[in-house]
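My main concern about presentation is that the manuscript never shows what a single data entry looks like. The format is easy to grasp once an entry is in front of the reader. For illustration, here is how one protein appears when written out as sequence plus structure tokens:
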Amino acid sequence: MKRYCLTVDLVDDPEMISEYEGYHKQIRPEIEKSIRDAGITVMDIYRLGNRLFMIMETEDDFSFEKKAEMDAANEKVQEWEQLMWKYQQALPEAKPGEKWVLMNQIFAL
């Protein structure tokens, strides 16, 4: 098992944040399937203000590159990502076009 933590900001608008959370109360089945098919076994998203924090646990052979290839070939995932980008805003540290930014672990107990 591998664990990754990622972060992104939402547009700082209470109505938009509420809409975004609404989409995540029950994600579309094809989106859940794409997540599981990529080898992600656990995905939790937390919010504070407009900052999101995601914890992912994956199978040992998971790779972000493989997931990106799978997502690029999946029309439903592309539609979802385009919709979610309406609510998300890139962090200053993000590369062009990057949403979720991988965080570095600085402590473990």
Observations:
- The longest helix spans residues 14-25.
- DSSP finds four helices and five strands in the chain.
- The two ends are 17 Å apart (CA to CA).
- Helices lie at 14-25, 29-37, 64-72, 75-85.
